[in-house]
Structures are given as structure tokens and as C-alpha cells.
Amino acid sequence: MEQLDRRTKRTRQAIKSAFVTLILEKGYESVTIQDIAQRADYNRGTFYNHYFGKEELLQDIREEFLNGFANTLLAPYEGMKRVEATQIYPSSLQLFVHIEKNKDVFMALHAVDKSIYFEMNYKLREAMRRDMHIEMEKTDPPIDYEIMLSYQMSATIGMIMYWAETNFKYSAAYMAEQLLTLVNARIDHVEFKQET
């Protein structure tokens, strides 16, 4: 039974990889089941043993990517009760590493539907609500927790969007470092450009 599970996983992984590559090469609409099966080195029957169609396959890829993205947030702190703000770099890094490792999957999902960013934002926010609570320094007026969470997630997703737009020209470590610096930085002042 374990051998069958391993074989099933291997087959599904080959089908997913083939589909991602084909989306990046020719676009989602142009990809056929025959294309996917051929690229994965299987026949159409094997494809249909695992998926009803390419919509189900795309949904499986999306869920796997998003779940992995959300799970990486907590992985560095397993077993810990508390972490200081200055020590949150590992989880930021893991988010960017997940994107970097799954760059083709991310770009294929983005090519099919730009709402992947909203889904990433939602997954992160839900993981944070469910599994942790951020304690803020006291401010006057007090910071609304949900607004702060929205701000933090939007900043993270915004940086991922920028990173993708630049074709991932920076390392995951650099992006995580920049995010942490920005989130913890305070604006000094703003200068306005004068037209001459």
C-alpha cells in the first residue's frame, strides 16, 4: 500500500510539473489534457485516474502552494510560546524561500489568475489569527489589531508582488531582511519634489 501511495504521489507530481511548465510556455487556455499527459510521459487515462480535468488539477496546485505558504510562517517557532519582534526574521525568510523554491508554480498561478495575491493575503491572515497573537507597544491612540494585521499582510504581499515584477532579482534572504527593516522602521520626514 505504501508503494502505491509513493507511486501515486510521484505520478501526481509529474502531472503537476508538466502542467506548470506548459502554462508558462503557452498559457492556461491553450494547454490540453493530451499536452499534460504527453509532457508528464503518461497517457490520458493515467491523467484521468488522478484528475477530472485541468480545473481540478489547477485547484490542487493552488491549494498545495497556498497551504505550504501559510505553514511556513509558523515552522521556525515550533514548540515556542513567545518570540521577540527582533527575532521574527526566520518566518519572514521562510515565506520568501517558499516563493523562491516554488517560483514556477507561483508564476503559473499568477498567469492564470491574479487573485493569487488575495488568496495569499487571506491564507496568511487566517494563519496569524488562528495560531498567534501579535503584542504591539502601547500607543496613543491605540492601534486597532485587525487594521495592523491587514497592514502587515499587505506589506508582505506587496513586497512579493514587487519581487515577482522584478523577476526575482533579489534573494529570499534580502527580501526578508528588507521586509523586517521596513516593518520596524519609522518615517523621519517627507520632502516634496518641486518642479523647475
Could you explain how this protein is built, in words?
With 196 residues, this protein is mostly helical. Helix content is 67%, strand content 0%. The protein has helices at 2-26, 33-40, 44-50, 54-72, 89-101, 103-112, 116-131, 145-165, 172-184. Helix 1 (2-26) crosses helix 2 (33-40). The N and C termini lie far apart (76 Å). The model has no long low-confidence stretch (mean pLDDT 88).
Task: Provide a concise account of the structure shown.
This protein has helices at 2-26, 33-40, 44-50, 54-72, 89-101, 103-112, 116-131, 145-165, 172-184.
Question: Features of this protein?
Answer:
196 residues; mainly alpha; 9 helices; 67% helix; 0% strand; elongated
Helix content percent band:
55-70%
Low-confidence stretches: none
Strand content: under 5%
Please state the average pLDDT score: 88
Label the overall shape.
elongated
Largest sheet: none
Distance between the termini: 76 Å
* Helix-and-strand structural type: mainly alpha
Please tally the β strands and state the result: 0
